[in-house]
């Protein structure tokens, strides 16, 4: 074995794996074990219930859309924070983290108050005939809110280290500004954008507190999957709750795996020759 | 295709990066901008590329106002110190970039682009590397990709910003020779920024030595080395011993050595002389007027030996270079007694405050009694040429 700079490789690897097992894998295994009481047939039966299906669709569809919105807006915000110097920049920068810090229930209530038909924003939207609170759009708003910091925070360090002379090189080679952005800057950011997307997506899929306040939780319409799990628990249907949890877990895993593969492919240029 | 820079000024907050800089670059010329960091050389290059703009002054290329043109309208090729390659694109895509971003009308056909990329990669000796990513190349290879990328747009002017600065010494020397050959093949007007005097002396047709935002001297490498125009050029290019001279009648003295027949007719009372290490003559037997010295240390550097000499008559030690062969022949060792005398010197008169008098110097040679050679410094090279002395200083 090659000599390593830091000693104790075996010890640290063992420790990491044990930790991962205890904190992450053990609860997941317990979940799978609990769900197995239902059997495969029961699981499929559960997933064929229209109400469950609608909730899963809203959870994953909404989370994907929210993550996509966050990628676009997050890129813009990160760009402004890194590239421009303006009064209040630090304050603005600190405010990005607020969705992390705020208890999700507080965020949910605040968003509901804003977007309710008589709220500050809601009344204007209502005048235009747009309803946000207590509809799937409300779910989306909450999901965008909680996922927002991820894209900004993953992007910032990468934007800061982008070499300026690469853009200058493109400029002297005759590229226009939009060409520099589309052909030089954006491709270098794609791997990071995907990371941010995955984090925002995962957060939005699992979000409960802020969503249930603004969603209105109308079955088949604005009900998210985590809410169904909680409802099952309240009815002491532990196996059903666990089965729904396993289904969400499997979907999330596949989604994240696809994103990781995409990210590797988009980052292929960084691999150094052996 | 003359490139004419007229009275350029550029300030960064408080300090002047360029201070009234004028320069004329001939078609097909290889010009080096040489100076220490902060001398303004990179600022000048960036102004030529259109990445920076002066507060005042003009840049004309072939009669066209360069400052009014955007970078992409100037048709320049720029090579950066840290390559600035597009790391998400392959080598071939990097080279093709300048052609692919053109508007549909000006863009060559696909096959044409591919052919040109192939040809350029061959030219920079990287054929077969087209499908690799920059991260899979060595520093020298990356810089050649950057050069091919700059040449792909068929620029009228090639700008190189310390292109070998990030490479190790051996690669640097190889690439330097190769670049010189490439320049001879292409005949492209090239401006090259460097802080490495060896690089500038070896590569350039002409060198502009810069210091604190000003051009100190423009000339061929030979002129710069042998007839330095200012004390700064003496000290920055090559090595030089500095001597303080004091007037005694019609002659200047330094530690008893006489610099006779001064050209200023008694005008200045003090002067400063620069003597290159290879222009010190050593002898083991007494020489009339020569300084008595003790050999303190010998640094053998291959074919040349650098000697540290303590001279009692002067206020600081001297450095002399002799061929290693001569060192062996003379049997010199540390502690030996020697007699040292200068054979050539560049002498600058000093004013009352001890500052060098601008645009005046005296190229002194031992044994040349009359007429004394005094070279007034003029900005234009033609003037310099007219005053050039045949058989001046020989190395």
UniProtKB/TrEMBL annotation, chain A:
Please tell me whether the keyword Transmembrane helix is annotated for this protein: yes
Q: Which Pfam families match?
A: BPD_transp_1
- Topology relative to the membrane, per the entry? Multi-pass membrane protein
The answer to whether UniProt assigns keyword Methyltransferase to this entry is no
List keywords of the entry alphabetically. Membrane, Sulfate transport, Transmembrane, Transmembrane helix, Transport
Cite the PROSITE patterns for this sequence. ABC_TM1
- This protein's source sits in the domain of life called Bacteria
Localization:
Cell membrane
Tell me where the transmembrane regions lie. 12-33, 53-82, 94-116, 128-152, 180-202, 238-262
- Record-annotated ABC transmembrane type-1 domain positions: 56-259
Known role: Part of the ABC transporter complex (TC 3.A.1.6.1) involved in sulfate/thiosulfate import. Part of the ABC transporter complex CysAWTP (TC 3.A.1.6.1) involved in sulfate/thiosulfate import. Probably responsible for the translocation of the substrate across the membrane.
| Protein name per the record | Sulfate transport system permease protein CysT
Origin organism of this chain? Frateuria flava
Its lineage opens with: Bacteria, Pseudomonadati, Pseudomonadota, Gammaproteobacteria, Lysobacterales
- This protein's encoding gene: cysT
Automatic annotation (TrEMBL), chain B:
Pfam families, per the entry: ABC_tran (PF00005), TOBE_3 (PF12857)
Can you give the residue ranges of the ABC transporter domain? 3-237
- Keywords annotated in UniProt: ATP-binding, Cell membrane, Membrane, Nucleotide-binding, Sulfate transport, Translocase, Transport
Annotated signal sequence is: none
SMART domains (alphabetical): AAA (SM00382)
Recall the GO molecular function terms of this protein's record: ATP binding
* Family annotation (PROSITE patterns): ABC_TRANSPORTER_1, ABC_TRANSPORTER_2
Name recorded for this polypeptide: ABC transporter ATP-binding protein
């Amino acid at each position: 074995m090659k000599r390593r700079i830091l000693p104790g490789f075996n010890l640290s690897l063992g420790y990491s794996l044990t930790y991962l097992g205890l904190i992450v894998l053990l609860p997941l295994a317990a979940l799978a074990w609990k769900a197995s009481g239902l059997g495969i047939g029961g699981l499929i039966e559960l997933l064929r219930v229209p109400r469950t299906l609608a909730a899963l669709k809203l959870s994953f569809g909404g989370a994907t859309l929210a993550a996509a919105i966050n990628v676009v807006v997050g890129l813009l915000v990160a760009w402004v924070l890194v590239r421009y110097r303006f009064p209040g920049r630090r304050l603005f920068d600190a405010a990005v983290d607020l969705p992390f810090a705020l208890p999700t229930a507080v965020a949910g209530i605040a968003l509901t108050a804003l977007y309710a038909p008589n709220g500050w924003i809601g009344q204007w939207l209502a005048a235009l005939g747009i309803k946000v609170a207590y509809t799937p759009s409300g779910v989306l708003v909450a999901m965008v809110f909680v996922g927002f910091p991820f894209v900004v925070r993953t992007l910032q360090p990468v934007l800061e280290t982008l070499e300026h002379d690469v853009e200058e090189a493109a400029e002297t080679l005759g590229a226009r500004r939009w060409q520099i952005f589309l052909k030089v800057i954006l491709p270098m950011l794609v791997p990071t954008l995907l990371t941010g997307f995955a984090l925002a997506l995962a957060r939005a899929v699992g979000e409960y507190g802020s969503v249930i306040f603004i969603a209105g939780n109308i079955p088949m319409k604005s009900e998210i999957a985590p809410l169904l799990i909680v409802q099952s628990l309240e009815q002491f249907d532990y196996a059903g709750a666990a089965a729904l949890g396993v289904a969400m877990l499997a979907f999330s895993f596949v989604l994240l795996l696809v994103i990781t593969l995409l990210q590797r492919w988009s980052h292929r240029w960084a691999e150094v020759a052996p | 295709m003359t490139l004419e820079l007229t009275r350029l000024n550029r300030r960064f907050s408080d300090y002047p990066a360029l201070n009234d800089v004028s320069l004329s670059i001939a078609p097909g010329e290889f010009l080096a901008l040489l100076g220490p960091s902060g001398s303004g050389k990179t600022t000048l290059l960036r102004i030529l590329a259109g990445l920076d703009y002066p507060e005042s002054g003009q840049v004309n290329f072939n009669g066209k106002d360069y400052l009014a043109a955007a970078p992409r309208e100037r048709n320049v090729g720029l090579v950066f110190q840290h390559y600035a390659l597009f790391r998400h694109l392959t080598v071939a895509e990097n080279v093709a970039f300048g052609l692919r971003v053109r508007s549909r009308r000006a863009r060559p056909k696909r096959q044409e682009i591919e052919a040109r990329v192939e040809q350029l990669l061959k030219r920079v000796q990287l054929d077969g590397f087209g499908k690799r990513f920059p991260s899979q190349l060595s520093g020298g290879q990356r810089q050649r990709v950057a050069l091919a990328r700059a040449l792909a747009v068929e620029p009228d002017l090639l700008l190189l910003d310390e292109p070998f600065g990030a490479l190790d010494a051996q690669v640097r020397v190889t690439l330097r020779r190769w670049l010189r050959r490439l320049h001879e093949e292409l005949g492209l007007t090239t401006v090259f920024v460097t802080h490495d005097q060896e690089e500038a002396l070896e590569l350039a047709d002409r060198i502009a030595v810069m210091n604190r935002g000003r051009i100190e001297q423009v000339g061929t490498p030979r002129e710069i080395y042998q007839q330095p125009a200012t004390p700064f050029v003496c000290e920055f290019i090559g090595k030089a011993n500095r001597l303080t001279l004091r007037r005694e009648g019609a002659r200047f003295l330094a530690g008893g050595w006489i610099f006779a027949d001064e050209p200023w007719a008694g005008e200045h009372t003090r002067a400063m002389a620069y003597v290159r290490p290879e222009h010190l003559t050593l002898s083991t037997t007494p020489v009339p007027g020569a300084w008595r010295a003790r050999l303190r240390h010998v640094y053998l550097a291959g074919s040349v030996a650098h000697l540290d000499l303590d001279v009692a008559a002067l206020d600081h030690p001297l450095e002399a270079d002799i061929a290693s062969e001569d060192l062996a022949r003379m049997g010199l060792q540390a502690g030996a007694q020697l007699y040292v005398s200068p054979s050539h010197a560049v002498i600058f008169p000093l004013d009352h405050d001890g500052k060098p008098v601008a645009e005046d110097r005296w190229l002194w040679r031992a044994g040349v009694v009359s007429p004394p050679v005094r070279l007034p410094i003029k900005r234009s090279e033609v003037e310099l040429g007219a005053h050039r002395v045949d058989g001046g200083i020989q190395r």
